[in-house]
Structure formats: C-alpha cells, structure tokens
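for the writeup, i need someone to sanity check this before i put it in the appendix. the sequnce is what the collaborator sent (i think, or maybe the updated version? ugh). structure was predicted straight from it, no edits. if anything looks off just tell me and ill rerun, i have time this weekend
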Amino acid sequence: MGIIRTQTIKGTAFTYLGAVIGVITNLFLLAKFFTTEQVGLISVLVAYSLLFAQFASLGFDNVTIRLFPYFRNESNKHNGFVFLLISTLSIGFVLSTILFFVLKPYMIENIGNTTSLFSQYANFVIPLAFFTLLFNSFDAYSRVLYKSVRGIFLKEFLQRILIVIAILFYTLHFLNFDSFVICYSIALSLPTVILIAIIILEKQLSIKRVKGFINHDLQKSIISVTFYGIIAVFSSSVILSIDRIMIERMLGLSEAGIYSIAFFFGVIISMPSRSLVKISSTIVADAWKNNDFNTIRNVYYKSCLNQMIFSVLLFIGIWANIDNVFHILPVNYLAGKFVIFWVCLGSFIDMSTGINSSIIATSKYYRVQSIFMTLFVLIIIVTNYIFIPYYNITGAGIANAISLFLFNFMRWLFLWVKFDFQPFNYKYLIVFFISAIAYFAGYFLPKLDNFIIDIIVRSSLIFVIFSLLIYFSKVSEDINGRVKAYYFKIFIKKN
C-alpha cells in the first residue's frame, strides 16, 4: 500500500494540475475561440484514433499487466519481453491501417454538411493512432516497472501544456486552422517520443530476443490473454469513443463538439482513478501471483471508499455551480447542461466501485472481463440509439450513466460471488449523508452578483463543510492519516 499511496498522491497531483489546464483549455479556449464544429472535429479525430490504436495493440497491454511478472528479470533484459511487445504492435498497426482505409469511405460518408470537415482531416487518424498505440503500450510497460507517475505527467500534464501552446498560437493568428490541427496532433504525439526516450536512457528497452524462455504453458497463457485482451481493450476504446462517434453520425459534428465540452466535467470527476488504476494494477497482479487475497481485498475496499469520497465532492461542487459554468461557456453550449449532470453521475458511479476492473483483469477469470466489456459495448450502443433520438446529446449522457451503472453492477456482483470481495458498508451511507448536507449548504447560499466570487465562495463553503465532516466522522483511515501526517510536518516539526 505504501507504493500505491506514494505514487497515487504524485500521480493525482499531476492529474489535477492537468485538470486545471484542461478546464482552461476546454472552457476558456476551445469553447471561446473555436466553433462547435471545429471542437467536434478534434473530439472525433481523437475518438477514432483511440479506436484504431486499441485494435492495433492486439490486446497485448493485458499481457504486459498480467504476465510481465513472469518475465521480470532486469539482469536478463526481462527475458526478451520488449521484443515480443514491439513485434506484436508492428503486426497490429499494419492490420489497423488496412482496416482504416477499408472503413474510411463509410466514416466520411456525407450525412448533411457537417461531415465535410471531418473528411478533410480523416487521414490524421493514422499518425494519431500510431502514437497513441505506442504511448499506451510503453506506458503499461513503464507501470509494471513501478514507474507509473511519468506516464501520468506526460499525458495528463505536459500534453495539455502543449495543447494550450498550440491553441494560443492559433488565437494569436500565428496559425490557421489547418496548421493548428497539425500542431494539435504533434502535441498529442510528443509525450510518446519522450516516454520511449526515457525508457531507452534507463536501459529498459532491449529489443533482443531471448530464445527458449517462453515455454509451452507461458505461450498458452500469452495467446489466451492476448485473445481475450483484444476483446477487452478494444471494447474499452469503443466505450470511450462511441458516444462522440454516434453523436457525430446521428446529429453532426457541432453537437459532438458541445457534447465533448460537457463530457469534460465527467472526466474531471474520474481523474483520481487514472493514477490509482495504473499503479494498483501492477500491485494486484503481483498479489494474484502470490495468492495474497488480503492485499487485494484491502486495495479494493480502500479504492472504492476513497474514490467515492473524492468523486462525490467534485460532483456536488460542479452541480452546485452549474449556473456559473454557463457564465463561462458561450450560449450555444447551454444544450449541454444536463449532459454535465448525467456524465458526472456516471463517472461518480464508476469511481465508487473502485478498481474492480483491474482485479478481474489480472485474476484467473480475466476472460470474464472480456465478456463484461462486450456486454457494456452492447448496452451503451443500444441505450444511445434509444435515448439520442428523443433527448439529443442529453440522451447520450443518460445512456452513459445507465451503462456505467449496469457495467459496474455486473463486476461488483461477480467479485462478491467469486471471491467474497464486498467493499460496501455503513460508511458509504455516512458519505452520502455528508454529501447531502454540503450540497444543500451550497445550493441554498444566495447567489452573488459576480459569478467568479460566487464560484469561490460557494465551492469553499461546500469543501469546508464536506472536509470537516469527513474528517471528524473518521470514515476513511487513509484520509485522516494523511491529514495528521501533513499537520505534523507543517506545524509540529516546525516547532
């Protein structure tokens, strides 16, 4: 737990620094200086690139997380693992590129005027997919080397800084939109180059093949994990991308742009889980290898409780300030108001169920994760088709929340039945009660004339009430422990 706690704190710090930059990027720059159609284009390019990158990985990221402990041997260059990784990615990227050009005519098929902009930039999907593929795979490799913070720093912080620079050049008229798309693509790709350079400098990127190490049993495991990994990993990318793609196809790029800005609020809520999942997956994989059920049970319980506490605070803070949000966003984004509510609710549900995905994916029942992911894809596609025609982009938000609830319910039930892992207890009811008190305190606070001061005062009131009640109720040993540790460092040590 010490490794998880230390790296989670560092990772979360970079994640939230990136979140602040993301708020500036999405609310103040993209929304102000770009049309909703241009924002939609950027969002859809990223969505497609993620899809093709995940297909190109051929599920090997799952092999890295689950089976690297069997390759781990630094003196022997980890027994040729990187050679196996690069070989798999090369085959996958060739197949993915062929698939892209086969599907491209259908992707850019005209459905009104809004698809014409995407057709001009569709080929950017290939280089973006290439660098996304490399980053995801080498970040997974870096994580199993217990170096998870660097990937978070590069992806969540540095990349966002580079994006802001590209946007500023555009707003200052140093770039036209064509050049901006190129610079935006470079900003997305550069962290990959830096990550691989760091791994090379650390002499952890040996491409030497080690013959004879992979025996029959390990080979069988690799094939099995890869096969089910293709389903699980590709399904996860579909989950992340399908709503924007379906909105673009059903409603247009402009609506996809509005949805992507609104969806960012859900991303803010789920950000703490990014560093935790990356770090804990390696710890859990080693625990499974050693049959250390107590460690897994402990990590699962703490991840659910602590993520719920942080996510519900962000949720009530965002929704209490929702009217202030639309003092910042242009009026044409007002259609995304209730999208924000539903995607935040979905992210809260996902956060509150902890690292259930990592536990299943690294267990002997990893195949079940593929089944769950496939069901999740089907649920989210069906719910989008049901709700988007009736509620437009709000329907996509509703579909997102319903799908995340059903998906996490399946995984929670499975872990309970198979391993007797049951993280929920009376403390969660206490957190709900505290959340309601803090939210209504902020909700009933009279509105101030200046919306910036209103945000500061309202958010501060919610934060203070929520934090004090959480601390004095002692619902989380980790949170109370960190508060006492920082109090000792700041006040006691000085004296």
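The longest helix spans residues 366-419. The chain is about 80% helix and 0% strand.
thx in advance!!
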